[in-house]
Amino acid sequence: MNPWILWSAVSHTARLSTVLQILLYLPLTLATLSTPAFLLLSLLLSAHSLIHGTLILLWGSQALSVMQVPMHPFLLLVSFNAFSQSVHPILVTAASWWAKILTFSGPTYVAMEGLSSLLFAQKVGQVGKELADEAESYQFAILIASAAAYVVAAWWIVVAYPAAATSPLTSTLLGVALTAFLFLTVIGFRLRRTNIVESSMLSLFLAYNIWLCGFDQTSFLDPASSYAPLLSNILPHLQTLVNFITNTLPKPVLVALFYRLAILQFASRILPTIGVDAWESDDQGNDGWDGRPTSTLTRILLTYRQLIFVIVYSHLLLLDPASQVWWRWANIMFTLLLWSVELVVSPDGDDVTRKWKVE
Q: N or C: which end of the chain has fewer CB within 10 A?
């Protein structure tokens, strides 16, 4: 067997193992011990991810993904041992400060998710326009796909409405969001600064957030409420382990986590393409893509993606059901506000804007 293929399989398996360990260990600690123990583990995993990302930035070896696998069980054992008896005051203080950092950084996560979602929708709209300019057959396919996206979004909102609009305030917010989206779509069409592809993508984003606002409340139950004694159950029967994992991992948090990380990943790939023509015309050297500022930002985001994963996941686990719902509404309103500013402020005569946005 080719050594490169074997090493690639080992490396990818190690990365998958890292993701699964983090996904399980954090809610497991929250369910079996306490919130301070969970915060300590989150802090240790974040510190480890920061060191790991820095080593990748400086060294760049794929062996680091394999070498870090034993660290996560070790940090889990450290957290369990630290809170098995009397807890040192320093650990309690560190966990308390880490909780404050996670809480106060919440608006940053919302802003990043909203901005990334808008950036992704605009990129899809740009690609759709380029395809439509190539052939009329593409135009018909794009119209069908956009119409299907509108229909799916409308159906999604109708299905989610009874659970999402449970009070006069949430009903008002839903009405404001839908009205603002319709008005912004019409304004964007009138100013020729958007198209149906971008608008349909944002309609799906709006429907997703409304659905998550009305997610089945039984899925928001405290993981500790479904906890069964660990050793006496998972060792004898594998089925008990599966049930334990199913009940411990909060489904709404996993949905929000997957979307947030995926959209950040897409946005980090899109950032270097913004204004590429203007940059290439100004930069006559040989640095190319790697010399651009957005390329540096993308490299940093991808290098420290494990740290972002741990922090975002920890923040979502800390939120109670009501807080998750209100952050969703804040995300919707922020994204619509950002889109409105972008539609109104974007100049018509700017070459970069003309290339990036739809005229």
A: N
User: What residues have CB less than 8 Å from 60, skipping those under 6 apart?
Assistant: none
Instruction: Tell me phi and psi for residue 342, to 5 degrees.
Output: -65, -40
Assigned token pair, 255: 């949905």
pTM over 0.90: no
Residues 6+ positions from 44 with CB-CB distance below 8 Å: 75, 78, 79
Q: ∠ CA(107), CA(110), CA(114), 5° rounding?
A: 140
Phi-psi region of 288 (alpha: psi -120 to 50; beta: other; left: phi over 0): left
Cβ atoms of 11 and 66 within 8 Å: the answer is yes
Residues contacting residue 62 through CB under 8 Å, at least 6 positions apart: 7, 11
Q: Which two tokens stand for residue 136?
A: 């009329």
pLDDT at 349 over 50: no
Distance CA 185, CA 164 (A): 23
Question: CA angle at residue 340 from 338 to 346, to 5 degrees?
Answer: 95
The two three-digit tokens of residue 42, written as one number = 């989150």
Euclidean distance between CA atoms 224 and 247, whole angstroms: 9
Radius of gyration of the chain (CA): 23
Q: What is the DSSP string of 256-300?
A: HHHHHHHHHHHHHHHGGGTTHHHHHHH--SS-GGGGSHHHHHHHH
Q: Please say if the pLDDT value at position 78 is more than 60.
A: yes
CA 11 to chain centre: 23
Average pLDDT score over the chain: 80
- Alpha-carbon span 62 to 70, nearest angstrom: 16
Q: How confident is the model at residue 351 (pLDDT cuts 50, 70, 90)?
A: very low
Which tens digit of pLDDT belongs to each residue from 40-67? 999 999 999 999 989 888 887 778 888 8
